[in-house]
Design brief:
Oligomer: homodimer
CATH superfamily of the largest domain in chain A: Response regulator
CATH architecture of the largest domain in chain A: 3-Layer(aba) Sandwich
Order of helices and strands of chain A: HHHHEHEHEHEEHEHEHEHEHEHEEH
Distance between the termini of chain A: 75 Å
Strand order of the largest sheet of chain A: 2-1-3-4-5-11
Number of helices of chain A: 14
CATH topology of the largest domain in chain A: Rossmann fold
CATH class of the largest domain in chain A: Alpha Beta
Chain lengths: 342, 342
DNA sequence: AGTGCAAATGTTACCGGTAACATGTTAGCG
DNA sequence: CGCTAACATGTTACCGGTAACATTTGCACT
């Protein structure tokens, strides 16, 4: 492949002059410039980004390390990150960890080797070891959607506690008192904060917390089936379920139907995060949504700041608001039509 | 940041010896190795991937250039690509063109500069200029989902003609004769092939082709509204619509509902590609699906072959089968219950 | 003892771009 | 006319890793 020196030879100048023409990084006589430009065109010279990166110590590459690229929430985050990064001349490597800390660690190691300029990370566990690794290597990092215990870092996340509170209170307002919750993994902050909101809402209405009503699963569709079975066996049987994310909610809906229960007539079901294309044609699920695209944008902007700034200012925590969208699955319609539910 | 030479100094050996320890690329005495490994651990040495890439002329990076990362079809393709690439030690840069040839060209230029090892591309136009650019720079490239006229290249795609044929014939089998189609952009092969299948199915049943029934839009939700309006104004009004992809179909469904028409009672609607999470809770749309994940896997595997092989064998065309999933939106249930439809 | 060979380690140079410094040239000004 | 300043261009070295080649050491075998 053609190099600066090839171009230089063809144009009868030195390599640095070619570099100056390409980057407008120094004075070049108009006639010389023209000759160089002709040589570049003739030889179809394309500068080698790696050589440039090696010398300049920046790669103009970010990584987005997320837990499930199949989940529309993350897709939308990715879109926000990609757009914001591209607008500033950065590229994004998307890495999918499937909530597996080992996979996550692997990716981090490779990304450090690649000397990416920074990283947006949805941590899959509370273990701080790999985060220490990042700070040791001076790699700017912004956490997204989740924090890690005992480690002060930049983070952009939704207001999970408020969301959990809002969903639960809404159900209480519809007359429910036996409200169960399908939580995500205990050690993921998103889950514990949402659970907190749930607890606080119950407490605020003097409803005692039933340990039987709190179940832990993964954030995937698959784990719901077992949980639904257990919840239906609880006594008294819950009249409403809060699912901790969109995929678990879908799983729950299927599982409930398989058990012969209608939603919302027999049991109400609400959840966090939407599935935009689904609700567009079938506005059924009552959900608490976050602006995922904005979350991606904010995280990227914060990361860029951090890259420019490195260890300067204190780590920031940006908390984005959540919105409750009331549709059918909570049974609000039923209540409206028939007075108090149950 | 620590380099081989720093480690070498600390261990009292030469740089190349460190390199040999790290890569097991030459004989090293056990005692020396131990000393070097200790130095690596003490200094927390991490090899610089860029320097390695510069020397070895490979980046272990692929790019996936697609047209809409919000579309679940492409997300699933991305997942297939990512998994397959990661399994072989490659990383993927995902680039989103929004069907904009200018954006696509930009990305290609930057990717050539980065000297990525290869590229999987869903071309946004029939223009071959940028593809010539790729071959000129000797960049292995596999087209995905779409081909480009008059350019022999590796490609992995679905059997669009067959799919278009199957959807149309299914509607004909249900008694429809006035079948309209919402096509994608004329110059995208995916669209023209599907349209071809539609035409062939009509011809096979001696149904004349009505130019009024063929409309062209983008592959996005937004373009459907206008098209639906136009189709409803045609005379006779079509009794069924074939949408060319999942998002257009959603748009059409909304537009039809807005016009006060029920699907499938008043008009049937079928489409290409599913929205998995939507149909999981609401199995409504009759669709012709492709295995997107497999498409991504195959494309990556083919690309890897091509990277290993460069200009060796002839370009391959891999055509994946499509499957018709009959659900409600085509009106099959109605027909079953009530005899011939309309 | 002499020869041959493998293992162990080192030296040099290069991948491609560019910062830092050096040199040559021209124009402006007293 | 001589001096300075700004412009134009070039030389050298470095970013960090490693291929190619060179050197040294130790051992087996004749």
């Amino acid at each position: 492949m053609v190099t600066v020196r090839d171009v230089a030879r063809a144009a009868g100048v030195s390599a640095i002059t070619v570099s100056r023409v390409v980057n407008a990084s120094g004075p070049v006589n108009a006639i010389t410039r023209e000759r160089v430009e002709k040589a570049i065109a003739d030889l179809r010279y394309v500068p080698n980004g790696m050589a440039k990166s090696l010398k300049s110590r920046q790669t103009h590459t970010l990584a987005l390390v997320l837990t499930d690229i199949t989940n529309p929430f993350w897709t939308t985050v990715a879109r926000g990150v990609e757009d914001t990064a591209a607008a500033r001349g950065y590229h994004v490597i998307v890495c999918n960890t499937d909530e597996d800390p080992q996979k996550e660690l692997n990716y981090i190691n490779i990304l450090v080797q690649r000397r990416i300029d920074g990283m947006i990370l949805a941590p899959s566990s509370n273990n701080t070891e790999r985060l220490d690794l990042l700070s040791r290597y001076d790699m700017p990092c912004v956490l997204i959607d989740r924090h890690v215990k005992g480690k002060k870092m930049d983070i952009v996340r939704g207001d999970n506690a408020k969301g959990g509170f809002a969903l639960t209170r809404h159900l209480i307002g519809l007359g429910h008192r036996d409200i169960a919750i399908m939580s995500g993994p205990v050690e993921v902050s998103t889950a514990s904060q949402r659970l907190d909101g749930y607890r606080r809402a119950l407490a605020a209405h003097d409803i005692p917390i039933q340990p039987d009503y709190i179940k832990y699963g993964t954030f995937k569709e698959g784990s719901s089936e077992q949980i639904v079975k257990e919840l239906l066996a609880a006594s008294p049987r819950p009249t409403a379920i809060v699912a901790m994310n969109n995929l678990m909610c879908i799983g729950a809906l299927r599982a409930l139907r398989a058990e012969g229960l209608r939603v919302p007539e027999d049991i109400a079901l609400v959840s966090f995060d939407d599935i935009p294309q689904a609700s567009s044609i079938y506005p059924f699920l009552t959900v608490c949504v976050q602006d995922a695209q904005k979350m991606g944008q904010m995280a990227t902007a914060l990361l860029m700041e951090r890259i420019a700034d490195k260890a300067a200012s204190e780590p920031q925590e940006i908390v984005l608001d959540t919105t409750l969208i009331v549709r059918e699955s909570c049974g609000a319609q039923l209540v409206k039509n028939a007075g108090i539910h149950r």
